[in-house]
Write a structure and sequence with these properties.
Chain lengths: 168, 180
């Protein structure tokens, strides 16, 4: 049983920042999902973490998503968990292609270090202020960001799936 | 009467108190029944290989009792399982550290061609980075397949010329992989 409802949670964010920080609110499967902007994200995260009532002290994950058809293609997604209140929140920030930068969350959580490195590795999101932003899972000399849609998932060196082996 | 079978002598000239054969064949015979494999097992093929090593299939019957977990004492590199691109340099380093003569066996679809992992992070066959002598098909191959592949290696060892490793063709092969 959660000790804070999504309405109370949203209410405390709006009481602190007003309406302009949050651009969109949805609740898929009961998970409060809000959209914010690059300018406000660190303030928002700081508030959620340090507020005496909310106490979102646990950063579950940072990841990203790519919508090639959208105006702002790359979305960075933060999952927070308030262990005290047993409630979760998801925050999305969308940025335009060619300007894929975000302020780092390592100032709040040391655990954000590897999460941001992974997000950089797969989506090319540059986290400004990150102490050691380099690839973490893929080979160091990889030149692409493989989870972006413009890069093919398959390996170009594969030979046994060429069409001429199948009469195509 | 023991039913233990001893390997046939290589073809040669036999007479009263002497037996003559070529050095190639004698050494090939000795090598092929005392191969020390280095198991480089990364996934499910490694489990099949463990079954091959265990009592039912018993790879020790073929003189491969002694697994070498150091590349420096190994004769045969058995690569079993998916090799990701990040693992590639490790495998290559292991191969380079092995002393000549050395043989490589690629077991299963992943080690041979990438298998189902046609993706940016997986090496599409270990022959992209090191030369391979025998490929075992299967996903994963049964222990019988591993034994057959191992016997193919033994045949290669028995018939290999003593001078092959210093031949220009072999040097060219290694150079094509960037290994000296």
């Amino acid at each position: 049983m959660t000790k804070i409802t999504n309405e109370e949670l949203l209410g405390s964010i709006k009481a602190k920042f007003g309406d302009e920080v949050i651009t969109s609110v949805t609740e898929p499967f009961g998970l409060l999902t809000i959209e914010s902007s690059r300018e406000n994200i660190i303030d928002l995260l700081t508030f959620l973490k340090t507020d005496a009532k909310l106490q979102f002290i646990f950063l579950t994950d940072i990841t990203a998503i790519h919508y090639p058809e959208a105006e702002k293609q790359i979305g960075v997604i933060y999952h927070l968990h308030s262990l005290v209140n047993n409630v979760r929140i998801r925050i999305k920030v969308f940025v335009a292609d060619g300007d894929v930068k975000m302020p780092t969350a390592t100032v709040l959580w040391d655990g954000a270090n590897w999460m941001e490195r992974e997000t950089y590795d797969f989506y090319g999101v540059v986290f400004e202020g990150h102490p050691d932003l380099r690839r973490i899972l893929n080979v160091d000399d990889m030149t692409v960001f493989p989870m972006r849609k413009e890069f093919p998932l398959e390996d170009p060196n594969r030979v046994d799936k060429k069409d001429y082996f199948f009469g195509r | 009467m023991s039913d233990i079978q001893i390997v046939e002598a290589p073809p040669g000239v036999e007479g009263a108190g002497f037996f003559a054969t070529s050095l190639d064949k004698a050494i090939g015979l000795a090598r092929s029944y005392s191969l020390w494999p280095l198991p480089f097992a990364t996934s499910c093929c490694g489990i099949e290989f463990m079954a091959t090593m265990a009592s039912t299939y018993d790879l020790a019957r073929f003189g491969a009792e002694r697994m070498s977990f150091s590349p420096r004492q190994a004769d045969l590199l058995m690569v079993m399982g998916t090799i990701s691109k990040k693992m590639g340099p490790v495998l290559r380093q292991v191969y380079i550290q092995m002393a000549e003569p050395r043989w490589v066996l690629a077991m299963g679809a992943c080690a041979s061609s990438g298998g189902i992992f046609d993706t940016y992070s997986v090496l599409q066959g270990i022959d992209e980075i090191i030369p391979v002598d025998v490929y075992i098909p299967g996903c994963p191959p049964r222990p019988e397949g591993v034994i057959d592949g191992f016997m193919q290696i033994q045949k290669l060892v028995q018939t290999e010329s003593l001078r092959r490793r210093s031949s220009p063709e072999y040097q060219k092969l290694l150079a094509s992989y960037g290994i000296l």
